[in-house]
Amino acid sequence: MSIYLDRDEGLHTEDAGAFALECPYCDVYAHMTPQSVPDADLLLRTRPTRVGLVFQCNSCAAPVFLRFSVREYAGHRVELYRNFSELERPKEKFPFNYLPEETQVLFREALGCYSNGHLNAFASMCRRTAESAFAAAGDSGKLTAFDIVMSAKKLAGVDDQLFQPARRTLFDGSPENAPLPELGRAEAGVLLELAKDMLYQLFVRRSKLTRALKVRQLFVRETPDEREIG
């Protein structure tokens, strides 16, 4: 999205107002309408390096605050970089109740770090979550988890350069305690999805399947056999 503020014409975007993102309030991927933008004259005089804009979610009408870095001050125009920071991010969801108690606590904190943009803290909590999960899953827990993650990488076609920081974060902990890799937003996003899939396969899927099969078996035992009359 190309975006700039003009002294006479106000806010302009390359996509003619079709800007959309996931709303932090209603969790809907919705179009955003500009609600409050800074005065271009004031920006041209003071020349800040970052600019804040407020958009309105077209789904729930909530205000969504975004921060842009200034690319260039040119004549009557303030050009902004396309990338922006969300001051409020949607909360990540997960069926926590299926996780072991310690793993649940750690992963809740990990997702809180991610939602608030604390990406290196997120990596640290993911490593602690993984170590707790491996211990809870038993002797072969770490190997099983590694197979799950490698399968997910192949299935999703994750680029190796983005995958390696996630792999090192999840599996290079004890006993070596290797340093955590520095994460950018792209690497953190890959780590997030791989960690969620790993925990889902280790605990959630097993628990749901086990419960469903028990219900089916109970239903069969309590239902009289149907016999043909003839």
Topology, element by element:
Elements: E1 3-6, E2 10-13, E3 20-22, E4 29-36, H1 40-46, E5 50-57, E6 63-74, E7 77-86, H2 101-115, H3 119-136, H4 141-156, H5 160-171, H6 185-222
Mean pLDDT across every amino acid position: 86
Low-confidence stretches: none
Q: Strand share of the residues?
A: 15-25%
Strand order of the largest sheet: 2-1-7-6-5-4-3
Q: What's the tally of helices?
A: 6
Count of separate structural domains: 2
Distance between the first and last residues' Cα: 73 Å
Strand elements, count: 7
Rg value: 24 Å
The portion of residues assigned to helices is 40-55%
Q: Which class of secondary structure composition applies to the elements?
A: alpha+beta
Profile the largest sheet.
7 strands, antiparallel
Helix-strand sequence: EEEEHEEEHHHHH
Shape: elongated
Your description of this structure?
The protein is of the alpha+beta class. The chain has 2 domains: 3-86, no CATH class; 96-221, no CATH class. The chain contains 6 helices and 7 strands; from the N terminus they run ββββαβββααααα. The chain has helices at 40-46, 101-115, 119-136, 141-156, 160-171, 185-222; strands at 3-6, 10-13, 20-22, 29-36, 50-57, 63-74, 77-86. A 7-stranded antiparallel sheet has the order 2-1-7-6-5-4-3, covered by helices on one side. Strand 5 (50-57) and strand 6 form a beta hairpin. Helix 2 (101-115) packs antiparallel against helix 3 (119-136), helix 3 packs across helix 5 and helix 4 crosses helix 6 (185-222). The mean pLDDT is 86.
